[in-house]
Every structure is written in structure tokens, then in C-alpha cells.
């Protein structure tokens, strides 16, 4: 076996646009809308150091797809997302009880703000829950390699409830496979 060294993302910044487009193209498989980055947003991503490497970029693309109403993401949104990432890293404790709640509240405020003087379409409650629920169930299944009993236990759900959620959310289930990016 020959070890292969893959340079860190910060050492191959020219790959960021292609990787971001690739991750956004995968979002419909997770039930999330495709987003596009404008030139300013793409430029901002290329100026970022990427301490979390490619996985951090993938997670950012997933957050942008799940939590922003706009189809085209601009530099201001990227700045806000990256600032939150830095704040979480500096806090050293992003596992506090308010961390997820605070992040969701900030994103929902931006979502409402994107509608200016209007309101989002009716049915917001179910849409938001679905956007959170689908990646949570999908990632739990990935973490347990498709083992629904373990995933149900991890989520604190009854196995039959999990199976119902999988059907309702149209989540493909593959046993024994772990998704590696």
C-alpha cells in the first residue's frame, strides 16, 4: 500500500468552486433545494482558510441549502456563516444547549428577512421541520451504517416510528455502507 497525501483544501483553493457546485448538486438527494453562489460569495469562499477541510465546505453547502430562502447566495450570507463558524470554534464549547437553537433562530430570522415586507408561503412549520428532520435521520442512518435499530436508538425513536419517517421523508436506505466524502 502506498500512502497518498492529498493537500488540504486551503492549499488547493482553485478546487473550491467545483467542490461547492458538486455539493449543491447533491442537495436534492437529501430533499434540499439547489443553491448557487454569486461571484462575490465564491470569491469569499476562496479567501477562507478551511480549517475543517472539504467536510467543512460540504457542511456549509448543506446549511446554505437548508436554511436560506434565496436561490442565489451572496457574499454577505457567506460572511455571516463563516463568522458563526469562527465564533463556535473560539467558544470551544459548541455543544451547549442553546447552540443549535441560537443558530436556527438566526437562520429563521434571515429567512423571514429575505421576504422583505411579505411573509413566507403558508405551511412554514411543516417545511422547516422536514428540512431539519430529513438530514437528521439521513445522517443518523449513515452513522449507523444503515442499521435502523441503532439509528432509532440514537434518535430516541421507536423503530417503527423511524421506519415511518424514512418512508414519509423518502430517504433511500442502504445497509452496511458508510458515506465517505
| Mean pLDDT rating | 83
The total strand number stands at: 2
CATH class of the largest domain: Mainly Alpha
Domain count, please report it.
2
The low-confidence runs, each spanning 5 or more residues with pLDDT under 50, are 92-97
Q: What's the helix count?
A: 8
The CATH topology of the largest domain: Helicase, Ruva Protein, domain 3
Return the CATH architecture of the largest domain.
Answer: Orthogonal Bundle
Strand arrangement within the widest β-sheet reads 1-2
Order of helices and strands: HEHHEHHHHH
Q: Tell me what portion of residues adopts beta-strand conformation.
A: under 5%
Reported for the largest beta sheet, the result is: 2 strands, parallel
Distance between the termini: 21 Å
Structural class: mainly alpha
Task: Note the overall shape.
Answer: globular
What's the Cα radius of gyration? 18 Å
Task: Please estimate the helix content.
Answer: 55-70%
